[in-house]
Every structure is written in C-alpha cells, then in structure tokens.
Design goal:
The structure holds two protein chains of two kinds.
Chain A (H helix, E strand, L loop, with lengths): L3 E8 L8 H12 L4 H21 L2 E8 L3 E8 L7 H4 L9 H5 L7 H8 L2 E7 L3 E9 L3
Antiparallel strand pairs in A: 1-2, 2-3, 3-5, 4-5
Chain B lengths: L2 H8 L2 E4 L10 E4 L3 H7 L4 E5 L4 H10 L3 E4 L7 H10 L3 E3 L4 H9 L4
Parallel strand pairs in B: 2-3, 3-4, 4-5
Antiparallel strand pairs in B: 1-5
Helix pairs in contact in B: 2-3, 3-4
Chain lengths: ~140, ~110
C-alpha cells in the first residue's frame, strides 16, 4: 500500500535545478523515518536519473511511490531514447557533451550508479520516442 | 572533531554553510567527478574538491558529507553559496591542493 505519491517536473537544460526532486524525496523519506541507508540509495539513484534527463532528454517527469516496504521511482522523458542500452550500462561509457563534463558530470557513471544503488531497475526506451526508467529500492535492505 | 574545529586547526575559512559547522567529521574523500563522488563518498566525510558549483552542493547533500573543502582556492558560485547556506552544508576554502589538504585532514580523523 502506498503511503505517499509524489510527482515532479524535471526542467530541461537547467543544471541548477536538477536535484530538486531528489532532495525533496530525501527530505520526505527522512520525515517518514525511513532507514538512512535506503534514503541515501534512493537519493543517489534519483539524482543520477534527473541529471540524465537534463543532459540527454530536455527534462521529463518523475513519479515516486513511497510505501513502508519500498520506494518506486519512475522517470519518464520524451528524449532521443538510448540506442544501445548495454553500452550505456557500462561504467565509463558516455555520450555527454563537453560542457556537461566541465560541470563534473558525463563520466559514464549515471546508469551504472542507478543500477548499483537500486534493487530493481527496468529501462524501457525507444529511439526517437523517449525513455522510462522504473527503479525500486527496498527499505531496510 | 567538528567541521568548525577542523577549519580552525587547518586555517580554513567558511565560504558558506557556517551554521552546519557543528557536524562531526568521520572520514575523508577526494574527487571532482560528481557521479564518482556520489557513488563513493560516505556519510560524515570531509569532501575535498575543486568543484564549487550548485551540483556539488547537491552531491554533498545526497551523500550526507560533513562538509566540502574547496582546494587551491577554487571559487564557489553564488547560487551554490545560497544553496549551501540554505541546506547548512559547510563549504571551506583552502589554498592548499587536494593532496596536501587530505594529508592534513587525516591527522584529525577519528
């Protein structure tokens, strides 16, 4: 049963605002008394996802469902899609432009970090249509 | 040791987030690639970097770092300063490079 449903708009091309959604989720999980390790995993995975949407997809939307057992995050964008998911999952593989690298991103760690910090990750992507990431973090895991 | 005490010992100045200065330091991490840092920095770390942008503040918040130390007098952006003040994340400045800072911090870790 869901305790809390949240929805955020992630603005495109605005690195200063990327991270607002994950910070807010982190804050709410703290208020709910969630396990601090689970909070950290949720926050990191979601922030990486937000940054990906800003870099590659012109923004998107985030849907978060919080229950006592798990946090489910769905990140939906209408960007270019991921042509080769297997490659994108390799640590160090990046298609981010140079200006993004100068900010400290684009190291090819985004999706690998998301995978590392979540208990379940599903990537639905279609070139030219967009990408939906669905990830779950189990509480107290 | 708290962030404030560390700053005094090492002669570092607060650029932002001084209200978070009572936080205890527990470890140290050095890095500039934010995704890398996000994956590896631990709660309570003194994070030494040259990245003074608003995303660095987000990374410090998400990893629950005790503070950020900007090495080699690297600048702190204005919006980053505001965010750090809001979130009470101490940002310290030093003229030393990352290596020398890490060596100095090591002497004060639990």
């Amino acid at each position: 049963m869901s305790m809390l449903s949240l929805k955020y708009v992630v603005p495109g091309d605005d690195f200063t605002r990327a991270g607002e959604a994950s910070s807010d989720v982190k804050h709410k999980l703290k208020q709910l008394g969630y396990d601090s390790k689970a909070i950290r995993r949720v926050a990191i995975a979601m922030y990486e996802g937000e940054i990906n949407m800003v870099i590659h997809a012109g923004g998107g939307e985030a849907f978060v469902e919080i229950s006592p057992e798990e946090v489910e995050i769905q990140l939906v964008d209408h960007g270019p899609g991921i042509p080769d998911v297997e490659k994108a999952m390799q640590a160090g593989y990046s298609t981010a432009p140079d200006n993004v690298r100068s900010l400290g991103f684009g190291a090819g760690m985004g999706l690998p970090n998301i995978k590392k910090y979540t208990d379940e990750l599903k990537i639905d992507t279609e070139v030219g249509k967009g990408t939906t990431l669905t990830m779950k973090v189990f509480a107290g895991h | 040791m708290t962030v404030k005490e560390l700053a005094e010992k090492l002669g570092m100045t607060f650029l932002a987030g001084e209200s978070g200065g009572d936080r205890e330091i527990e470890g140290c991490y050095v890095g500039d690639l934010l995704s890398w840092v996000m994956a590896r920095a631990e709660s309570g770390d003194v994070w030494i970097t040259v990245m003074g942008n608003v995303n660095a503040i987000a990374v410090a918040s998400l990893t629950d770092s005790a503070c950020i130390v900007l090495a080699e007098s690297a600048g702190l952006d204005q919006d980053a300063k505001e965010r750090a003040d809001q979130q009470e994340i101490p940002v310290l400045a030093t003229e030393k490079d990352s290596f020398a800072t890490a060596v100095a911090v090591a002497g004060y870790l639990p």
